[in-house]
Amino acid sequence: MGLVGGVLDVSAQEPSEAARLFEQGLADMREGRHATGCPALAESYRLEPLAGVLFTLAECEASWGKVFTAVGHYDEFLRLLVTLPPEQAAKHKERRQVALEKVSGLSRLVPHLVIAVPSDPPPGLVIKRNGEVVPASSWGVSAGVDPGDYEIVAELAEGPAWRRKISLGRGEDARVDVVLPKVEQEAAVTSKLEERANPYRTWAWVSAGVSAASLVVGTAAGVIVVGKKGTIDDECVDRRCTQNGLDAADSAQTWGMVSTIGIGAGLAFGAASALLFMQEADAPVERGTAWRGWVSPGAQGAALGVEGRF
User: Fold this and answer.
1) What pLDDT, on a 0 to 100 scale, did the predictor assign at position 254?
2) Regarding beta strands 148-155 and 162-168, do their DSSP bridges make them parallel or antiparallel, or are they unpaired?
3) Residue 306 — left, alpha, or beta (φ > 0 → left; ψ -120 to 50 → alpha)?
4) Between 102 and 190, whose confidence is greater?
5) DSSP the chain
6) Measured between alpha carbons, how far is 256 from 268 in angstroms, rounded to an integer?
7) Which of 65, 130, 269, 308 has a CA that sits 20 to 30 A from residue 138's CA?
């Protein structure tokens, strides 16, 4: 314990907050109250990052059994010494030797934990270890941890979380395979089936577009027929027509059929579009889906229809 005292000057009439925390943490550490002593030392080092405080913090953690955290702080202490002027670094000669020995000895006692996640994890998956988020870059990687109890949690945006508890002693290695909640797996399958229902929506919009175009064509053709009727009335008297009247009559008959087919097709495809939008809102489709509309002109008009395969 001789190497952990006398780091900060507490002789001043009003010692700094860092000095106060250091003395408090050191006293708790010496009394075995590591749960309060080590955090106080850590806060002191944050306020005044002195090499001696960092060494004392590492000693506290090693005594507490936090071997992984202690090794990290011993390493940080050794790196910090390299940045100090030679005369300051020389004051930590004994501490440096202790730190080297502790790193060598404690490193063999560090437990390692692997959190294995499925190779194709769903979007939004969050993995936590004792409440702290584990970044995706650390999934499947052997990570050093302190001995103790751990709870691994896998969370998705919806559904229950998956949990697994594990205890690790000094030098133990363990692997935890994350198993996604069953309800989420079923939701993922449902989502894929719903995606396959998209042809309903696609063909519904196609039918709506064809309906609009057909109605425009049918209406335009009807306007032409009305114009031709005026020519027929002028050029035909008592069922006798001039050549212009005969041409107008033939043209009116042709455009009349176009108008009938256009308006009929527009109504048919409009009905098909409405049906498809209603189908799209129902259960997902698992088989292939295909739709087509058809028009069959005849001597007295036209037949219209829509066919589908479910």
Assistant:
1) 85
2) antiparallel
3) beta
4) 102
5) -TTSSS-S---SSS--HHHHHHHHHHHHHHTT-HHHHHHHHHHHHHHS--HHHHHHHHHHHHHHT-HHHHHHHHHHHHHHHHHS-HHHHHTTHHHHHHHHHHHHHHGGG--EEEEE--SSPPTT-EEEETTEEPPGGGTT--EE--SEEEEEEEE-SSSPPEEEEEEE-TT-EEEEE----HHHHHHHHHHHHHHHTHHHHHHHHHHHHHHHHHHHHHHHHHHHHHHHHHHHHHHEETTEE-HHHHHHHHHHHHHHHHHHHHHHHHHHHHHHHHHHHHHHTSSPP-S--EEEEEEEEETTEEEEEEEEE-
6) 18
7) 65
Give the amino acid at 193. Answer: L
* pLDDT computed for residue 289 by the predictor: 47
If we measure between CA atoms, which residue out of 285, 309, 288 comes closest to residue 195? 285
**Tens digits of residue pLDDT in 213-234:** 877 777 876 778 677 677 777 7
For the chain, give every domain's residue range.
Answer: 17-107, 112-182, 197-309
186 burial (CB, 10 Å; 0-12 / 13-18 / 19+) is exposed
What tens digit of pLDDT does each residue of 33-62 get? 999 999 999 999 999 999 999 999 999 999
Class of domain 112-182: mainly beta
Report whether pLDDT(136) > 70: yes
Indicate the pTM of the whole model.
Answer: 0.57
pLDDT at 212: 82
Q: Which amino acid is at 148?
A: G
For the domain 17-107, what is the CATH superfamily, name and number? Tetratricopeptide repeat domain (1.25.40.10)
